[in-house]
Amino acid sequence: MQTGRDIHRGIVRRIRRVRRELDERERSIDGLQLALGETGERRCAAIRALAEFHLPAMREDAVAATLAGMESSVRAIFDEKKDRLREVERRIPEQRDEVAAAEAALASVTEGLNETGEERARLARVVFGELQAMPRWQRLFEQARLLEARVTASEQRHEATEREQAEKVPAYESDALFSYLARRGYGTARATGNVLTRRLDGWVAEVTRYEDVRASYDFLNALPGHAAAVLEEDRAALATALLPLARLEEDVMDSNGLTPVLARGEQLYAEREAARQQVREAEAALRELTGELAALHDERGSYYESAIDGLEAFLEGRTLDELVAMARATRDPRDDALVAQLLEIDSRLAELRAELAGRRKKRTRLAKRLAGLEEIRD
Predict the structure, then answer these.
(1) At what angle do helices 176-183 and 195-208 cross, to 10 degrees?
(2) What pLDDT, in 10s, does the model give residues 93-149?
């Protein structure tokens, strides 16, 4: 006689069998769906080949011989391509002229800049010689040089004090006894605690030499500020010393005509950069046009692809009987073979879809059976 446990075990075994069968059904359905997708891709390829048969290239003769139902659409695309070709062929010589003009402008401004550079170098030698012969300039220059050296040294000292502070201060602040006395304000007017705790604090301070350590700590924290103040003073002194030196140099430059030459050089430099940009833009536009011209001469370029897409859509919308009639009308065996291939593919698609529908129904029945067994088990 079967016990309740035996019955439960039997149900569990049946559930496992049904699950295995359901998994097999799922795998078979996946395989059918894959085959269906591959067959669909074969059909798309056949339609594409048929469209290319009816329009092998974007040429006048091919357009004239294409399908009657699509000739007007294809011709509109072909005419658009011819219009664009004429436009590009017209614009390329104009763009070449723009490139040549931009290159000529660049050459002119470069020549002017070179001449200005030579004039600037000549006048700079005159100005420098005159300045060197002036005792006042020598004194101001030497003073500025010394102050610049002082500023450099002050900057280095300031950086060194900041590094030292960053390296050493954390060690003080991580010391437990030092932090304790600092928090309690030991040795300051804000010291906290009663007589006993203050006495204990004093004992701790004496043992740890807190006052000496605190002095070093405060010095480390104050040093960067002092160094920054000195640096600021040195920079101010340098700025003050540079003013009369700059005025004297400007006077000598003005008297020798160097100032307007420098201004003209800056202007010409800016003009040269603008001219370079114009050359780059003109050359880029020319490259784009010549590239488009090459693409337009391609009989299977983007315009062809656009026409083929339209033909594919047209053929997709025809029945197999209509495609057979079209093939017979051409008296060319190639499209007959393509239509025959489509007939075979469509037959295979119908078989796959029917088989897929049947397997899905069986899967649904198995899933319901599994759900019933699981309900009994639970």
Answers:
(1) 140
(2) 999 999 999 999 999 999 999 999 999 999 999 999 999 999 999 999 999 999 999
For the record, the structure tokens of 185 come out as 């304000």
Confidence of residue 18 (pLDDT cuts 50, 70, 90): confident
pTM, two decimals, is: 0.59
DSSP 330: H
Q: Are 308 and 49 in contact (CB under 8 A)?
A: no
Residue pair 48/312 in contact by the 8 Å Cβ criterion: yes
- The residue type found at 328 is R
Instruction: State how far the alpha carbon of 344 is from the alpha carbons of 32, 39, 295, 337, 351, in Å.
Output: 17, 10, 37, 11, 11
Helix axes 333-377, 4-54, angle to 10 degrees: 160
The encoded tokens of residue 353 equal 């879809």
Q: Which amino acid is at 148?
A: E
Do residues 29 and 367 touch, judged by C-beta distance below 8 A? no
| pLDDT tens, position by position, 22-42 | 788 888 888 888 988 898 888
How far is Cα 61 from Cα 85, in angstroms, rounded to an integer?
18
Distance CA 79, CA 284 (A): 27
Distance CA 192, CA 183 (A): 9
Count of CB atoms within 10 A of residue 136's CB?
11
pLDDT digits (tens, 9 = 90+) for 39-69: 888 888 888 888 888 888 878 888 887 777 7
Angle of CA points 228, 233, 235, to nearest 5°: 95
| Cβ atoms 160, 153 nearer than 8 A | no
Per-residue pLDDT of 215-235, as tens digits, reads: 887 788 888 999 999 999 999
